[in-house]
Amino acid sequence: MGAALSTSLRVAAPVRALRAHVLRAPRAWSRVSRLSGALVCAAALGTGSVRAQSQRPPAPPLSTASGESPGDLRGWLARIHDAAARSNYVGTFVNSTGTSVVSSRVGHFNEGKTTLERVDALDGEQRSMLRINDEERTLWPRYRVAVIEPVDPRASFPALVSGSEKHIPEFYELHVQSPERIAGHDADRLLLKARDDSRFDRVIWADHATGLLLRVDVLEEGRTLESSGFSDVNIGVKPDAAAIYAELHRGDGYHLVRREVQHTKLEAEGWTMQAALLPAGFQTLGCVRRALNMTSDDAGQPKVLQSIWSDGITHVSLFIEAFQPQRHRSEGLTVIGATHTLTRRVNDMWLTAVGDVPPATLDQFMRALERKP
Question: What domains are defined for the chain?
Answer without folding.
Answer: 25-255 (2.50.20.10), 260-371 (3.30.200.100)
